[in-house]
Design goal:
13 strands; globular; seven-stranded parallel sheet; Rossmann fold; single chain; alpha/beta; 2 domains
């Protein structure tokens, strides 16, 4: 295989979370036989910390125009642009400078100028030569690839609550209040809050509370273990929905914002109870939904089955073939 230079353009900061950085790092691991570089802007302070910890080759730019100078200097064969809404002029210029342009999770007008658009969060239809949409193109992290779902049990012992690296809508705080109420009815259930490294748990009063059977974990490296051990999850509509589905964990989901609310995978047909926009959801509704799900093992079992029908573990292989234009997707 001919070795290629592959450039990732990606951002990660509190307002948009760091999920884009995590995803690109996972994809980069698949392409380790090639020469890889990341580029991000100065505002991505949290993302830069992640890149630094990963040990991957990266550079920081001041303005978007600086990426064109970097391309002239480094001369990549492929650029992977992980961007929510690309502009046409920007993407056209990229295409004029790089042989192959890949757009990830991009629903902007500029995506039409990419060689391939990969978006696991939507199931829209388009030109099969360009668009690769749906859950089959989600790239599971390695820690989930090796795990199998635990055996289903009618009783609920563990519930996990996680809202990503930043939780910009502070849904964690809402769930913390709800869980304390739920504990009054189900004192044997253990609740684990997993908070990302951007989220300030202490300032928000999210602390471990043994009396209410609550543990709070911050910035852990093995969230897959806690997901696998859980009987129910509460989460937002980012990459965690695919990770939970791969393990068959029935989940209640709330969107961080209206754009996340449009993600199509977190639906009842895939085993999720979707409460809509998290900022509109009341503590009382969360509490009642949790109690109902705890009390209905038949529903949880059906949700688990719907989740596990999805073929999620081959997504990484499909993505690498698209990036390298290797066919067989």
């Amino acid at each position: 295989m001919e070795k290629k230079r592959i450039l990732f353009k990606v951002e990660g900061y509190k307002q948009i979370s760091v999920g884009h950085i995590y995803r690109c790092l996972t994809i980069a691991e698949l392409l380790k036989e090639h020469e890889v570089m990341f580029v991000t802007s100065k505002r991505s302070r949290e993302g830069i910390d992640l890149l630094e910890d990963s040990g991957i080759n990266y550079t920081v730019i001041d303005t978007l125009d600086d990426i064109f100078l970097l391309i002239q200097k480094w001369r990549p064969d492929i650029i992977i642009n992980d961007c929510l809404n690309s502009e046409p002029e920007y993407m056209k210029k990229l295409k004029s400078m790089v042989n192959r342009v890949i757009a990830i999770e991009d629903i902007g007008e500029g995506s039409a100028y990419a060689d391939a658009v990969i978006n696991a969060l939507y199931n829209e239809k388009g030109d099969d030569q360009i668009y690769f949409y749906g859950e089959k193109y989600h790239c599971l992290r390695n820690e989930f690839m090796m795990l199998e779902p635990k055996e289903f049990t009618p009783s609920v012992e563990n519930i996990i609550i996680t809202f990503g690296g930043a939780d910009p809508s502070n849904l964690t705080k809402k769930l913390y209040s709800a869980v304390k109420n739920v504990h009054n009815f189900y004192q044997n259930i253990h609740f684990t809050f997993v908070c990302g490294f951007v989220y300030d748990s202490e300032r928000n009063g999210i602390l471990s509370d043994p009396e209410n059977n609550i543990s709070v974990l911050q910035n852990i490296s093995n969230i897959s273990y806690y997901m696998q051990q859980s009987d129910i999850a509460v989460t937002s509509q980012g990459s965690a929905i695919f990770e939970l589905a791969s393990l068959g964990v029935p989940a209640i989901v709330m969107a961080q914002n209206k754009r996340e609310q449009s993600h199509t995978f977190a639906s009842l047909e895939n085993g999720f109870i979707n409460l809509g926009l998290g900022t509109d959801v009341t503590v009382d509704l969360v509490q009642k939904t949790l109690c109902w799900l705890i009390e209905t093992p038949v529903i949880r079992s059906e949700m688990r089955s719907l989740m596990l029908k999805n073929d999620l573990k081959k997504g990484a292989e499909r993505i690498s073939k698209i990036i390298l234009n290797d066919g067989g997707t």
